[in-house]
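for the writeup, i need someone to sanity check this before i put it in the appendix. the sequnce is what the collaborator sent (i think, or maybe the updated version? ugh). structure was predicted straight from it, no edits. if anything looks off just tell me and ill rerun, i have time this weekend
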Amino acid sequence: MEKQRGMHPKEGLTYNEIREKIKELIESFLNGSHKDRATILKDTLLKELVEPMSRDKNKPSKHQIRRYYHHFLEILEDSSEAVMVKTAMLKVYINYDARRKQIKSKHFRAFIEGIVDSALSEGDLNNTLKRLRNAQLLFEAFVGYTANF
């Protein structure tokens, strides 16, 4: 069987497929009802992101996950226009680390990129802050589920 270019050997998904799947999960969470969010936090996040990532030999370390989470929390402390730039820079950092092979997990990279893209999708400061605050719950659950990495 010929290996398709860009395919993840165990998951059978390309990075773009993983990214789309995770972006859909994030958008569902940010735009969903409280009931939908609860289901995503207790079931979907585990099934769609954490479990596949835990089987990946390139899964991120606890330290790497917490470093990005703390950076995310620092962004939330700001309420100026700089939030939008700082949020966009989070995507730059994850891609820089991926290129340097510091972050090898496609799932984790897609998660960070998905949060950034979703937070900035509305284009104004108030909506960005609101979406970041909502994404904090998702990121916090992710950190909790990955504590054993």
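The chain has six helices and no strands. Residues 15-145 form one domain.
thx in advance!!
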